[in-house]
Amino acid sequence: MSDTDELLEATTALVLPLLHALDALNQAGRLMHPPALAEVVEAIAQYRDPLESGRQTFTQVAWPEHLEEFTLFANMSTTLALRAFDGFAAAMQQPEPAMAAYKAMGLATQAYAAAYPLAAMLPPVNRFYLEPEVREDEQLQQKLMAADPERANVGVMHADNASDQRGGFSVYVPEYYEGESLPLVMALHGGSGHGRQFLWSWLRAARSNPCVLIAPTSSDRTWSLMNPETDSQRLLGLVTYAQEHWQVDPARILLTGMSDGGTFSYVSGLQSDSPFTHLAPCSASFHPMLMEVVDPARAQGLPVYLMHGALDWMFPVSVAREAHASLSAAGAQVVYREIENLSHTYPQEENPAILRWLAGTN
């Protein structure tokens, strides 16, 4: 066997099981409902051993120096994915299984992020980081493979937003961006979350249906719900930052968020001076009294894409139904999505529909 054949065989042995593993872990996070945790853990267990086997094959090869970066990211993602599988498996033996599973979800997100540089190197990974409905779009794939990921102001970027920092932000702009006008999506993490991680819940959608994606991190543990001006001013500054660095369509500026981030989408996005043209809260808290302080002119005709899980254990779905009724009564144009199998997690499968709605093509 030639050296080239050996490298190709080792790559195939690892990369395909890795992509299957990342998909399985992503599904585990999406379907994570505390009463169903045992079933979720059992469903993904089958993807661990092929990944471990692929890792062993991959690491036994003497990789040439010019492929050092490739092997670094592949090994890093594999290690994190294996740790995530082990975290899910061990969760059932912990005093608080759900909390242990949420930690495993964090490792899965890190594994997903670590593998992303491979998308510029391998066509199967390139397709993996696209929404399923555009994976056969040869023109899009070619644009992505031909794009320079090192070009300034495109790709994944972080500003004072390491995992141990607060108050920074992460950005994604498609690598094939050429100065055209794009929507802006501002995506807010949940309580105790982090923008650096939440960015990845939107990356496939932003890469497939181009937009400028910004995922800020709250200055404190969560968003300034009791003093909205604090974080609202930061979001306003980030809108301005986006407008200064990319061509942003002024008619398509979306504020969206999960859990506390969704709640802050209401609190900040309903303010009269909000720069956001569309709101998309998910799994959020809502109090009808909020509408009493909202300028009727702000609510009138405001497009809102409201998502909530029927299985949500933190904020029951009745909260979303009340929000739907209150916003509609105030004249907002509400798209209401009550998702049957969604617990208190983010439904990434909604993102393409949100972007079509933002573009007015739904």
Please render the helix and strand layout as text.
Layout: H1 3-30, H2 37-44, H3 48-59, H4 68-91, H5 97-114, H6 123-128, H7 138-146, E1 155-159, E2 169-173, E3 182-188, H8 195-198, H9 203-208, E4 212-216, H10 229-245, E5 248-258, H11 260-269, E6 278-282, H12 296-299, E7 303-309, H13 317-329, E8 333-339, H14 351-359
Parallel strand pairs: 3-4, 3-5, 5-6, 6-7, 7-8
Antiparallel strand pairs: 1-2, 2-4
Helix pairs in contact: 1-2, 1-3, 1-4, 1-5, 3-4, 4-5
How would you explain this protein's 3D organization?
α1 runs parallel beside α4 (68-91) and α1 (3-30) packs antiparallel against α5. 46% of the residues lie in helices and 14% in strands. The protein has an eight-stranded mixed beta sheet with strand order 1-2-4-3-5-6-7-8, with helices on both faces. It has 14 helices and eight strands. α12 links the parallel β6 and β7 (303-309). It folds into two domains: 3-118, no CATH class; 145-359, Alpha/Beta hydrolase fold, catalytic domain (Rossmann fold). The protein has 362 residues and is an alpha/beta fold. The N and C termini lie far apart (53 Å).
Please tag this protein with its features.
8 strands; 2 domains; 46% helix; Rossmann fold; 14 helices; 362 residues; alpha/beta; globular
Which residue ranges are poorly predicted, with pLDDT under 50 across at least 5 consecutive positions?
none
> What CATH first level of the largest domain would be assigned?
Alpha Beta
Compute the separation of the termini in Å.
Answer: 53 Å
Order of helices and strands: HHHHHHHEEEHHEHEHEHEHEH
Mean pLDDT, rounded to whole units? 96
Spatial shape: globular
Output the strand order for the largest sheet. Answer: 1-2-4-3-5-6-7-8
Largest sheet: 8 strands, mixed
Number of domains: 2
Portion in beta strands: 5-15%
CATH architecture of the largest domain: 3-Layer(aba) Sandwich
- Give the helix/strand class: alpha/beta
